Structures are given as structure tokens and as C-alpha cells.
Amino acid sequence: MNINQYVLKNQLRPADAVILHKKFMGMVDHFVIYVGNDLSGPKFTANFTKGIKVLPNEEINKQLEKYVPKKIERCPGNNFDRQRAVDRALSRLGEKAYGFFSNNCEHYKNFVHYGKEYSNQVDAAGTTLTATGGLMAVGGVLASKKKTRNWGAVLLILGLGLKYLAERNNNS
């Protein structure tokens, strides 16, 4: 299915997000925003390591080879809210401040939809690292295993750092 058919079949409306899941070892989802059509066809924006950009249709088709469309997240609100969301999406074109934990494609999607940057994936990673690190640290202390205790402490601190980043972005 080409991108034109995908847009029609799924009745995408401007500012809807398509959540793509990696086909191989897919632990992280990728988010792209449909911003509407022009003379050359459907237009999507996304935040990649090289920055926020409009994706040419051939690049979208290439992305569909690496990722499987998992879900469509409809932009909340009415047509006015959707237009404001599209304006937010386009306002950041060219920005090159990608950060896996602080400004990734999910942060961008939530900024477009809600005007707030946050990532549930970063929050979940922080929760996992915090719990794992805490258990390792306590287990290492109880078993008198210094290496386990130290690695647990490192993971705990990393997890708390990610939780802090997620919460800070969620509150801004």
C-alpha cells in the first residue's frame, strides 16, 4: 500500500499522528504527524536525529519498510484545535535539537497535539531503570555483593534522572 492509499484508508485528518513500530527488535515507537496534502500528495512531519522536517513521500515509503504502522492517534479537539496543532508542527520545522531522552519524536508529537513536550517512553524507561536499579542495589547489599550493589545504584540514579526529565517536560 502506498502512502496515498494509507491516508485514505485510515481517514487521516491534519494533525493526526501515526505511530510506527520497528519491525526488528522494535522496543521504541516512532511518531510522525500528518499535516495534510499539497499538489505532490500527503505531507508528514517528524523529529529525527537530523531535525524536524517534512518527509518526502519516497522517504515515508522507505520508513514503512523499516516500521509497521501500529496505531493512529487522532488529534484531540475540533477543526480549530487541529489547525493550531498543524501550526505548532510546522513552527518547528528545521529545528535540530533532537535528544533521545529530552526531545524525541514522541516529545514532538505531544507538543503538536497538546502544546506540551513529554514522552511516555522516556517515563517508562525511567520507571524500569529505577525499579531494576533499586532491586539490584538492595539485593547487592543483602548478599554482600559490592558489584551488584554499585551497578544497582548506577541504574537507580539513571532511572531517577529519566523520571526527572519526563516529569520536568510534562510540567513545562
In the residues, how many domains can be counted? Answer: 2
Helix content, binned percent: 40-55%
Helix count from the secondary structure assignment: 6
**Share in β-strands:** 15-25%
Strand order of the largest sheet: 4-3-2-1-5
Distance N terminus to C terminus? 39 Å
Radius of gyration from CA coordinates: 19 Å
Shape: elongated
Please provide a written account of the structure.
The protein has six helices and five strands. It has 172 residues and is an alpha+beta fold. Strand 2 (29-38) and strand 3 form a beta hairpin. It starts with a helix and ends with a helix. 31% of the residues are buried. The mean pLDDT is 85.
Q: Could you write a compact summary of the structure shown?
A:
With 172 residues, the chain is of the alpha+beta class. It has helices at residues 3-9, 57-66, 79-91, 105-114, 120-142, 146-171, and strands at 17-22, 29-38, 41-48, 51-55, 67-73. The protein folds into 2 domains: 3-117; 122-171.
How does the SSE layout of this entry go?
Blueprint lengths: L2 H7 L7 E6 L6 E10 L2 E8 L2 E5 L1 H10 E7 L5 H13 L13 H10 L5 H23 L3 H26 L1
Antiparallel strand pairs: 1-2, 1-5, 2-3, 3-4
Helix pairs in contact: 3-4, 5-6
Considering the chains and any ligands shown, give keywords for the structure.
alpha+beta; 172 residues; five-stranded antiparallel β-sheet; 2 domains; 6 helices
